[in-house]
Design goal:
Strand content: 15-25%
Number of helices: 12
Strand order of the largest sheet: 5-4-6-7-10
CATH topology of the largest domain: Rossmann fold
Distance between the termini: 33 Å
Mean pLDDT: 94
Low-confidence stretches: 2-12
Helix content: 40-55%
Number of domains: 2
Largest sheet: 5 strands, parallel
Shape: globular
CATH superfamily of the largest domain: NAD(P)-binding Rossmann-like Domain
């Protein structure tokens, strides 16, 4: 766990999601060992990948590696770009009916001829480890036990592991997506160990956005626009959570660099804590997914 000395050092001022994710993976692996030692099967996560999107393939591969690390069974179902919506929905129903599977994710984005909403709503809420189903979102809104969207879940745990106080703080969320922004605002305002914030939701069309961001004790940015938030838009000493990750063309061996939604070079001069890109929120998103899958398995065998 980070110590006080770590926190006052610049290099550890970073909220190192990758390091925290590795700690939590070890904890999950211990739980899986307990499960299998009792004669139960390991948790089983299935991912469906439609098409050949490069970023999606990378995300799915990282999820597979995480499953291996913690001892989960992992299955990847690869379908061609030409897969129809009906064919995909049929495959989802087959997985819904398979009692050996605890969690199902369909990697987004999908080909344009397939409705993301129809697909996410077709997943059995008991296996909705991405937390996208209306049932999961509705329960979250009402403060009921449910699967929490993986990225917000990971962010809350990152704040907790670094012992960042949230009670009574002003949290500004820039971004209003159903995957990150909206569930994030609910979590930060809810009654809980890392909640109890006063929350403001902004977005790219908010007038005088800087007026709000500079009031934030905790600033969470998820708009998908590289370097959208500059250092002069951040309150001195604020905690900055950068959810964005975009490939930007650059003269590098890979031909691109990864940029967050926050301009890191200017933000690091004023922020108290900040997540790097990459290595910040991304690994914690996968942790949220792993923990939801473990929870689904526990719900099944403890019921």
């Amino acid at each position: 766990m980070p110590t006080f000395a770590d926190k006052i050092s610049f290099c550890i001022m970073l909220l190192k999601g990758k390091e925290i994710a590795n700690q939590i993976k070890e904890e999950i692996a211990v739980e899986v060992e307990k499960i299998t030692s009792k004669g139960h099967r390991a948790p089983h996560l299935v991912a469906i990948l439609v098409g050949e999107d490069g970023a999606s393939k990378t995300y799915v591969k990282n999820k597979e590696l995480a499953c291996q690390k913690v001892g989960f069974t992992s299955t990847l179902v690869r379908l061609p770009e030409t897969t129809t919506e009906e064919e995909l929905l049929t495959k989802i129903q087959d997985i819904n009916n398979d009692d050996s599977i605890d969690g199902l994710i369909v990697q987004l984005p999908l080909p344009k001829h397939i409705s993301e909403n129809n697909v996410t709503q077709a997943i059995d809420p008991a296996k909705d480890v991405d937390g996208f189903h209306d049932v999961s979102v509705g329960k979250l809104t009402k403060g009921q036990d449910t699967f929490i969207s993986a990225t917000p879940y990971g962010i809350v745990q990152l704040l907790d592991r670094y012992d960042i106080e949230t009670k009574g703080k002003h949290c500004v969320v820039v971004g209003r997506s159903n995957i990150v922004g909206r569930p994030m605002s609910i979590l930060m305002s809810s009654s809980g160990k890392r909640g109890n914030c006063t929350v403001t939701i902004c977005h790219r069309h908010t007038e005088d956005l800087q007026r709000y961001t500079t009031m934030a004790d905790i600033l969470i940015v998820a708009v998908g626009i590289p370097e959208f938030i500059k250092g002069d838009m951040i309150k001195d000493g604020a905690t900055v959570i950068d959810v964005g990750i975009t490939r930007v063309d650059a003269d590098t061996p890979k031909g691109y660099v990864l940029k967050g939604d926050v301009e890191f070079e200017s933000a690091e001069k004023v922020a108290g804590y900040i997540t790097p890109v990459p290595g910040g929120v991304g690994p914690m998103t996968i942790i949220g997914l792993m923990q939801n899958t473990l929870k689904s398995h526990q719900n099944k065998f403890n019921s």
